[in-house]
Amino acid sequence: MSTARSFIPMSTAATAPSTAAAAAAAPSSSRSFKIVFRSMQSLVLLVFLIGAVITVTRLILNPRPPAFRLDSLSLSGLPNVSDASSPPPKFDVRIRLTATNPNKKFGVVIGGVNLCLALIPSKCQLRPSSHNNKSSSEHYIGERRHGSFEVKASPSPGRGRRSKRSFQFTVDELLRKGSEVMSVKMDVSVKFMHAYWPSKRGSVVVECKDLRVGLSSTHIGNLKDGGKDCSVRFA
């Protein structure tokens, strides 16, 4: 009995230091967990910020070009073969276009349009000087929106052989088959705009092919088959 009584206090004294050590280690483990958790949070936030910067930079550096559709084309005052060597005084080209902005974050400003008409399969071309119907010559299209505008063109001045070469595009060429196939090529200046980033300027090449133009008795040509989607690429 005396041996059992002396054994119990010894066991209690042995377990007391281990309990105190475990209690002291618990706050240290909790602090380590918090440090690791906060570090992981900071790492995730850093990765997210880097991804956001890369995405925004990619959008800024690589905006998508606007899409163009040729809605109508009208030619009037075309010269005959006899006076094709000089610019016709009343020659006029009117093209109506619809431009669509495919970008989610950027508005697009459509600027100047340089126009070239060509007959197919012949290589007769006419390069009139073009201008928009607004005095500002700029058309703003918001994000994921579209807008229509008209381009008017008149003969660009030329001299000598250059003038004769330019105006071989005549009524006789259009009357040869009754309904000629034409192509329209435009160099369009564009500007991409964002509220918090500098604007980016560029140029796109717009090509509208296989356009059938009918010519009336008054030498006025109009697009016969309705609108036509055009191919677009950065210059």
Can you offer a commentary on this structure?
With 235 residues, this protein is α+β, with helices and mostly antiparallel strands. The chain folds into two domains: 1-62; 67-234. The protein has three helices and twelve strands, in the order H-E-E-E-E-E-E-E-H-H-E-E-E-E-E. It has helices at 2-61, 160-166, 171-175, and strands spanning 67-76, 92-100, 107-120, 125-126, 129-132, 139-141, 146-154, 179-194, 197-215, 220-223, 228-229, 231-234. Strands 1, 2, 3, 4, 5, 6, 7, 8, 9, 10, 11 and 12 form a twelve-stranded antiparallel β-sheet that branches. A hairpin with a 4-residue loop joins strand 9 (197-215) and strand 10. The radius of gyration is 37 Å and the shape is rod-shaped.
Task: Give a quick precis of the structure.
With 235 residues, the chain is of the alpha+beta class.
- Intertermini distance: 105 Å
Overall pLDDT confidence: 76
Helix segment tally:
3
Question: How many domain modules?
Answer: 2
* Percentage of residues in helical conformation: 25-40%
Largest sheet: 12 strands, antiparallel
SSE series: HEEEEEEEHHEEEEE
Q: Which outline best applies?
A: rod-shaped
Uncertain runs are: 159-167
Q: What percentage of the residues does DSSP assign to strands (E)?
A: 35-45%
Number of E-state strands: 12
C-alpha Rg, in Å? 37 Å
Structural class: alpha+beta
Protein name: Late embryogenesis abundant protein LEA-2 subgroup domain-containing protein
Main location: membrane
Biased composition (Basic and acidic residues): 136-149
Keywords: Membrane, Transmembrane, Transmembrane helix
